[in-house]
Amino acid sequence: MARISLVPQKREFFVLYSRAARNAVEIARLLVQLLEEFPRDGGLLRDIKELEHEGDRLTRELVDLLNRTFVTPFDRDDMYQLSSALDDICDHIDEAAGNIAGYGVAEIRPAAKDQAQVILRSTEKLREAVERVDGFKDAGRQLNELRDLEDEGDRLNREAVSQLFKTEDDAIAIIRWKDIHEQLEEAVDACENAADVLEAILVKNR
Predict the structure, then answer these.
(1) For residues 79 and 12, what is the distance between their CA atoms, to the nearest angstrom?
(2) pLDDT (mean) for 21-49
């Protein structure tokens, strides 16, 4: 039977959330590097996969700690949602990187590099916001900036897919790149979803 702690483990929770958010920034940074250096890999795909696994490990640690803690620093369901939302970002980035490597693309389209930069900036804003949950400090600026980035990500995806159909004659290439662009946009959407969870947490605990 799991050991139930009656003492709030506030510090440990916030440390784990901070680590998860920083892990999301690092995997996004590696994605940017992968796209800039393509087709040279230099072990970046392996490193991205390892950070995706690290995200899974941090999620398991958080869930295990939640299951062992009687008094949590904020709503238990919100804590599960936040850990899951942070992990989803890593999953989408890993999938996008895997698609780029697995689809046999010859070169990286500039729009994909722009999308990767938006993902990185989004994770950086999200990390700033996550680190303000400790003490429930106002994170309105970070969350608003993150939503602006999500709008930019939507625009980039629309333009990338539109340009793809205008300039590409190879049907297979269109299918491949449309999937890649949309997977990159999913990573930005995952950041916005985490921002929504964070905002709900901060509003409830003011």
Answers:
(1) 13
(2) 94
Does 7 score more than 80 pLDDT? no
Q: How confident is the model at residue 50 (pLDDT cuts 50, 70, 90)?
A: very high
| Number of neighbours of residue 137 by Cβ within 10 angstroms | 10
For residue 103, give Cα distances in angstroms to 28, 51, 114, 195.
20, 21, 20, 31
Phi, psi dihedral angles at 7 (to 5 degrees): -100, 125
pLDDT on residue 170:
87
The domains found in the chain, sorted by start residue, are: 10-204 (1.20.58.220)
C-alpha distances (whole Å) from 53 to each of 42, 85, 88, 103, 110 are: 19, 15, 12, 22, 28
Q: What residues have CB less than 8 Å from 105, skipping those under 6 apart?
A: 173, 176, 177, 180
| Secondary structure (3-state) at 164 | helix
Q: How far apart are CA 36 and CA 34, in angstroms?
A: 6
Written as six digits, the tokens of 42 are 């230099």
